[in-house]
Design goal:
3 helices, 33% strand, Elongation Factor Tu (Ef-tu), domain 3, 4-stranded antiparallel β-sheet, alpha+beta, 290 residues, elongated, OB fold (Dihydrolipoamide Acetyltransferase, E2P), 4 domains, 5-stranded antiparallel β-sheet, 24% helix
Length: 290
């Protein structure tokens, strides 16, 4: 689970480190927001002042009440003092409401563990600014460790949920189970996200980089000199193959370059000779002398 603050501010302190086991409601990270503590302190001082005034006005009213019995003070004076008390009580209620909000905001400056788990990642350090809603810490439940990565559509098409993928943490071999396969690509990278779950019990792997080995299945794969391929940057790359003494175009799918050779894949098997020279003078259907 990725945890975030609901307020913006600066990371004040981090009470845990990657790999730590935490209990539910443990305080993990504290945030400093310059508007929270001063506002609460100001309201506390304001409330104390209002309460002092209320106590004094209540005493004044008791005295005026006695004086009224003796007609030693006017009714208007007494009513003015009553109005003053009502205004102070209204101010008290307003300030207490503001304090309740400030105290709630103060609680939002603390991220607590939502469940018992293990700290797996930090995205911010003390002193760094964080926006409201921006993930700052990750925690895994029940010691289940996961890896999320992005892969090409070709690799993705060879996978299914439950597949076991090998990985390495340094020299140590690990096994991961595929638990999520995204159905749409990242619009920025054009890669497809996948999530794998570590099958081994290895707390020290938390927060570490692992090398994953995804299965690759190729059919009709060939290796030829680079100059064999025609690629004008507009159309799909292709090679010319001699079939029935004529040049025939075969669209290819480049996989990778190996020195001066290209490794590529085609939809159909190439059983005939490939033209490796003079392609600029050849078009589909051009007669070829064997």
């Amino acid at each position: 689970a990725d945890l975030s603050f609901q307020l913006s501010g600066t990371i004040k302190s981090i009470n845990v480190k990657i790999g730590d086991s935490v209990e539910k409601d443990d305080e993990l990270i504290h945030l400093y927001n310059p508007n929270i503590d001063p506002a609460l302190a100001a309201n506390e001082a304001k409330l104390e002042s209002i309460l002092t005034q209320i106590r004094q006005v209540e005493k004044d009213l008791e005295n005026l009440k006695t004086l009224r019995k003796n007609n030693s003070v006017s009714k208007t004076t007494y009513e003015h003092k009553e109005t003053e008390l009502k205004n102070l009580l209204a101010q008290q209620k307003s300030v207490e409401s503001e304090m309740t909000l400030s105290q709630a905001n103060q609680q939002e400056t603390i991220i607590k563990a939502p469940f018992t788990g293990i700290i797996s990642q930090f995205s911010k350090q003390p002193g760094e600014f964080v926006s409201a809603g921006q993930p700052v810490i990750s925690i895994y439940q029940n010691k289940i460790l996961e890896v999320e990565t992005e892969i090409t559509k070709e690799l993705w098409s060879n996978l299914k949920l439950g597949d076991v993928i090998e990985g390495y943490l340094g020299d140590e071999k690990l096994e991961f189970e595929l638990v999520e396969l995204a159905q749409s690509a990242n619009p920025l990278t054009h890669l497809l996200p996948v999530v794998l779950q570590l099958k081994n019990s290895l707390p020290e792997a938390i927060g570490q980089n692992v090398n994953l080995s995804f299965p690759q299945k190729y059919q009709n794969v060939y290796q030829l000199p680079l100059q064999t391929v025609i690629d004008d940057g507009i159309n799909q790359p292709y090679v010319f193959v001699t079939e029935r003494k004529k040049a025939q175009k075969h669209i290819i799918k480049p996989l990778f370059i190996n020195g001066n050779d290209i490794i590529f894949e085609v939809d159909n098997v190439i059983d005939n000779p490939v033209i490796i020279e003079g392609q600029s003078k050849v078009a589909s259907g051009t007669p070829i002398e064997e």
